[in-house]
Every structure is written in structure tokens, then in C-alpha cells.
Amino acid sequence: MPAYTPVESDFVAAVLNGKPDLLRKALAAGLPVNTHGFDSGTLAPLHYAADRSAKPAVVAVLIDAGADVNAWDHSPHDPKTPLMHAARRGALDLVKLLLKAGADANAANDNQSTALVSACGGGKAPAFEKVVAELLAAGAKPNPEGLIWAARKGSPAVVKMLVDAGADVNAIGRWGVPALHLAADENRPEMVETLLKLGAVPHFRAPADNRSYAGQTALDVAKANKRRKVLPLLEAAEAGKKPAAKPKPAGTIDDVWNRLEKALKAAAPEVRKSLKKGTTEAKLTKLEQKLGVTLPSDLRASLLRHDGQKEDGDGLFPEDFVGDMSGEFVLMSTAEIESEWRMWRGLNDGGEFTGSKTTPGKGVRAGWWNPGWIPFATDGGGDSLCVDTTPAKGGTAGQVIHMRHDSGDRPRPAKSLADLLANLCDHYEQSDG
């Protein structure tokens, strides 16, 4: 934790806890509103607040106090304006507020990164789609970098919005290739299909001196890197045929774990060694009694197979494996599940989330937290992957949701734990060798 002065500490607390009056106190005590003093001197207060998805009421106080809405932070590699920070977090209310205050929707750094590019690379959650739509409506102009980042990390809906707004689906970005190459390399069949429908050229071949894709077409990329999910689509596109049928379902949780353990042994042996032995039926029954829920069959079977991971190892779920996951996620034990669940229960019962807005994914109930969400993996910083025992209409019991501590987005990355682990198998199998 940085050694903040009392005034700076009041500001940080105001941002993190949504307390505009505490911010006014810090300003009255001399908080410099346009000085870069946070995160090793790279961020001014408005950058810090936008990057932490502060409440609009807090950010409004900074703007009223004279914060420069178009100031650049002092990041040495990829400087951003407050609008870019807010867009990167999918903070729609802040994006609207900053635009209204005069933020430049087309401000770009030397990497050609803009607020629109930041939102395109934020993830697949609906919040980023809304931010992209808002920026486009405010006059943001799409560039190749936005389309490339959307192809890698965003949703097909974002790509379609960009192309509808004038983006060239075959434009060459800083990687020296069009978006289709990146979608292929990320093994994203839904994105490859969308790009092809929008006119992406499947036979474009990267220059021979390209650092990452020398002389390769998107199909070559998929073959070389074992991106099995997109191979049928690209093969069909080059041959002018319809794509092959979708792959078969994941199978039982034990089938998936058999496959996953084999893939881990080849691609990530240290992760394989970190998996603990399974728990017992008696401990699972006690966990159900303490939480007041019936655990989904997939989660029970998984915990009987592996009761979490050992400490100080790499997480089972690597960074960026699911949507906008920003770090590794470690498999949790029954004891850790109970502890994490009780922590969220205590915060909820204490009124911590009263009035907090959320953006639930398909089939996910609205609300910051729900006692029917059972965490099974954590990033160690407050975010977790949960199985959902109380889905909304359109959802399925046992679906997986991404629970974030600093955002109201509640996306659904998989319809079941078995499906999520099957996708993880694909990831490690493609990493083998």
C-alpha cells in the first residue's frame, strides 16, 4: 500500500467507497486536483478515479474542482486520458459524464489507442458494448486498432458496430495483419464467423517479415497454433463451403477432468502438480448445510476430484482465459469456498451494496451479490468464478458467472462448470508444444 498523506488517503477512500463529501474534505485540505501523484506518480486524481470505476457523484466533484478531463496520465508505455480509463473499465456512467464535461472522444496516443480502442479491448461483457455504442454516438471514429482489439477480446456485436460505423474489416493494424488473423490466433469461432460474414478476406497472407505471422494466412495461423475451434470455419471459408458442425458437448465432469489432467501434464506440469486431492462427501454435505444450498452436481464431482490448489503456484485458469479476466484464477478448496462466501454474505448483510447497479449477463439475476452464487475459483484480489444455483429466466442452474468486486458486470462465461473446464482443456491442448 503506498504511503499516502492524510489528504491523499481521504481521496483514495472517497473513490473506493463512493464518498463525495470525503473528497470535498480532501480538496478543501489541499488535494492538488491536476497533479500526477498516484500509482507511482503516473495518475492524476481524475485518472485514478476513472480507473477505479468511481461513482459518478465522486468524479463530478473532481470535474467541478477543475480536473482536466483531457489530461494524459504519465504511463511510459500506453498513456491514457480519463475517458480512456473509464472506457477500459466499461464504466458507462463515467464515460457519459466525461463526454458531457468535454472529454475528447478521439484523443489518441502514439500507439493509436483511443477511448474506443480501450473499450474494444475491455472484454465481451455487455457493459463494453454499451460504452462502444456511446462513444460512437459521440463521434468516436473507429481505427484498425479498435477492430483488432475487439477481435481479440471483445464481442461480435462490437465488431459489427465498428464496421457499421465505417471500420474496414480488412484493415491492417500494428500487428501487420487484419483482425481475422488475431481472432484465429485467439481461437474465437464466434468472432471468426462474424468477421467472415462482414467481408473479412480469408486468404490474406502476412508479409514474410512479419514478426508473429510471417507469410501466414489466418488458416495457417490456426493450423500452426492448434486453434481447433476455428479451423473448420477457416477451412470452409478458403474452400468456399459451409462450416462443419459444431463440436460435441463437453461430457461428464470426470470425463473433462481426465482430459484436463492429461493436457496439464503436457502443457503446464506445475499446475497439474498443484492440484490437491479430492474432498469427502461428508465435508461437502457440511458445506451445503453451512451455505444453505444444494451444490450443483458438477461442482460436487469436481471437488471430489480436486479440493482446490496448493499455494504459491500458477492458477488453473490463466490470465485472459475468460473474457475480461485480468489475472489468474486459482481453484478453491471447500474451506476457501465457505470463507469467501461468508465474506460476501457479511458485506451484503451489512448493506455494503445497497443501491449498487449491475449489468447481469444472460440468465443471471440482477444484484451485486446473491447467496446462490458459490465461488470455486479466485484471483486473490476479490474477483471469483462462481456456479449459480439461482439463475434468472433464460439461465441454467449450475451456470458459471464472473463475480467482480470493482464492477457491476456479471457475465456468464459458460453454461456449466463442465463446459468451462472443457474450454480450459482446449486452451492447454493448444498450448502443448
Tell me the layout of helices and strands:
Elements (H helix, E strand, L loop, with lengths): L5 H12 L2 H9 L16 H7 L4 H9 L17 H7 L3 H9 L14 H6 L5 H12 L6 H10 L2 H9 L14 H7 L3 H9 L20 H7 L6 H9 L13 H15 L1 H6 L6 H11 L5 H9 L24 E2 L2 H16 L9 E2 L12 E6 L5 E5 L10 E5 L5 E2 L6 H15 L2
Parallel strand pairs: 2-6
Antiparallel strand pairs: 1-3, 3-4, 4-5
Shape: globular
Which class of secondary structure composition applies to the elements?
mainly alpha
Uncertain stretches: 244-248
Largest sheet, in brief, is: 4 strands, antiparallel
Order of helices and strands: HHHHHHHHHHHHHHHHHHEHEEEEEH
Instruction: Work out the number of β strands.
Output: 6
| Approximate helicity band | 40-55%
User: What count of structural domains?
Assistant: 2
Keywords:
433 residues, Serine Threonine Protein Phosphatase 5, Tetratricopeptide repeat, two-stranded parallel ribbon, 6 strands, mainly alpha, 4-stranded antiparallel beta sheet, SMI1/KNR4-like, 45% helix
Task: Provide a descriptive summary of the structure in words.
The protein folds into two domains: 6-239, Serine Threonine Protein Phosphatase 5, Tetratricopeptide repeat (Alpha Horseshoe), CATH 1.25.40; 253-431, SMI1/KNR4-like (3-Layer(aba) Sandwich). The longest helix is centred in the C-terminal third of the chain and has 16 residues, at 334-349. Mean pLDDT is 91; it is low at 244-248. The two termini are 39 Å apart. A hairpin with a 5-residue loop joins strand 3 and strand 4 (384-388). The protein contains 20 helices and six strands. The chain has helices at 6-17, 20-28, 45-51, 56-64, 82-88, 92-100, 115-120, 126-137, 144-153, 156-164, 179-185, 189-197, 218-224, 231-239, 253-267, 269-274, 281-291, 297-305, 334-349, 417-431, and strands at 330-331, 359-360, 373-378, 384-388, 399-403, 409-410. It has 433 residues and is mainly α.
